[in-house]
Amino acid sequence: MKNTVIRYGIYSAITICVLALAGWFLGKNLDYSMQKVIGYTSMVVSLLFVFFGIKHFRDKENSGIVSFGKALLIGVLISLIAALAFGILDVIYIKYINPDFMAEYYAHYVEQIRQSLSEAEFKIEYEKLEAQKEMFSNTFMSFLLMAATVFIIGFIISLISALILQRKPQS
């Protein structure tokens, strides 16, 4: 199981990093909503290795048998590797590759809510944003947020894959 988790976790991590970098550099002229779509699509595509990792373990290492719990564990561990890799990549991106990203995204988001809310509602939301600004500008929080996003999506894919791929021994 350990070899499967490491192998497919690395496949997933490499895929998410390559797709994220490609999205960042090729999509830098796209608006933020389109970049989000590309980002989430990259996460889902890279996390398909969860399904293939569980299937590989079941068919090649465990004689065609895998319990729901074991399949879920494999998927969660593969997701964890991808989540950690993406969290680290995000920190590198916002700290070294594009250090202005957080300020640019914050300004974009403020402008977006300014256009969609009344002046009174905007002032309330803006105060909330300002209170949270420092926390979300923190490198550790950025890592945690991005890693958690990938992990949650990976958990959902692990759950679905475990349900589909579980196979009990024939009695």
Describe this structure in words.
- It is a single chain.
- The chain has 171 residues and is mostly helical.
- It has one domain (2-97, 139-165).
- It has helices at 2-26, 32-46, 48-61, 68-97, 101-116, 119-137, 139-165.
- The chain is elongated, with a radius of gyration of 19 Å.
- It starts with a helix and ends in a 6-residue tail after the last helix.
- The mean pLDDT is 87.
- InterPro entries: DUF4199.
- Pfam families: DUF4199.
- Keywords: Membrane, Transmembrane, Transmembrane helix.
What is the element string, with H for helices and E for strands?
Answer: HHHHHHH
What's the total number of strands? 0
The percent range for strand residues is under 5%
Class derived from helix and strand content? mainly alpha
Summarize the amount of helix as a percent range. over 70%
Span between termini: 24 Å
Sheet with the most strands, sense and barrel status = none
Low-confidence stretches: none
Shape descriptor: elongated
Mean pLDDT: 87
Radius of gyration: 19 Å
Counted by DSSP, the helix tally is 7
- Count up the domains: 1
